[in-house]
Fold:
Amino acid sequence: MTRIAIIGAGLAGLVLAGALAGRAAVTVFEKSPAPGGRMATRRAEPFAFDHGAQFFAPRTQAFKDFLAPLVEAGVVRRWDARFAELDGPRVVAQRTWGDAPAHYIGAPGMRAVGVHLAQDLRARGVEVHLGTRVGDLAGGPPWALSGADGSDLGTFDWVVTTTPPAQALALLPPAFAHAPTLAARRMRACFSLMLGFSGGLDLPFDAALVKGADISWISVNSAKPGRAGGPCLLVHATNRWADAHIDDDPGAVTAHLCAEVGRVAGVDAGGAAHVGLHAWRYANIGKAGAGAPGAFVDPALALVACGDWCIQGRVEAAFSSARAAAHALAPLLPG
Ligand SMILES: Cc1cc2nc3c(=O)[nH]c(=O)nc-3n(C[C@H](O)[C@H](O)[C@H](O)COP(=O)(O)OP(=O)(O)OC[C@H]3O[C@@H](n4cnc5c(N)ncnc54)[C@H](O)[C@@H]3O)c2cc1C
Structure:
């Protein structure tokens, strides 16, 4: 069977591996110790924070169909949040999320989706190597992969990157046909501020979109369905502020974001039992232009680059990009 290496076990990598399983010998390499990529959950007992993607609101039938068995398994749950729009400290709109569209989350944390999909892949014979950062591709095709520690990761007929484009470019050879397109797709940064409290939280919303501040989002993470941890808040910086401050001292970033939460939501971060910060250098990206491909395939070099960034910085875009990659690869595989 054709040997295919997939770099990255975020949603795109896991969905693509599932689509190719059985048609090719698929191996997934993920640098983190857990699958899921930016659909992530961080624990700081007794708190748990979805510090990457907050929710997904499926639009396409294909994504709804993909989610149905995960909903059935309880790994994906609906989140009918009390939602607010804030302009600085002023609440300008409030509603409860309903059917149009329905909003979903992973349960008991966002990462559960990746963990479940990776387990399913292993049961179907796909190798999923966690804690394995791919460092180099040589010789190809076929491609000899080595780890960032110099270890031999094997030889593959095709290699697919599902990482953000800057990380893909660092791995792919300069001759990759779509290198200039990848270089032009710039991702925006974000900071996630994680606040855990020993007492209850009394906010008039479960999730809020914020304007007029250096923070863009506040959610009461502990109010999401299926969460067992202590009361906690997850706050995102605006992409604009994060782009300008991504290399700043983390203590200074934390202090500024805490001050913004105080100003906007009246929450005293000084009283938090846990304060954490995560910096995302490659967090989000705007919509690609009309007609942009969902995946970038170079048949001559047997290389593919895909991921949410091909379409838009959204969970559903990662799914759609993986499907586009699988669709493009299918006629190129023997049998
Ligand atoms: C702060 C934040 C908030 C967000 N909010 C939302 C939201 O509310 N709703 C929504 O729909 N989307 C949201 N998103 C976007 C959403 O998380 C992504 O669109 C989606 O998870 C991307 O999936 P992916 O598989 O394309 O990429 P990723 O999840 O980034 O997967 C790529 C994987 O590649 C791995 N990797 C990188 N380099 C290597 C290497 N050399 N070797 C091995 N592995 C490697 C990474 O560790 C990662 O696991 C948010 C993202 C962030 C960061």
User: Anything to note?
Assistant: The chain has eight helices and 20 strands.
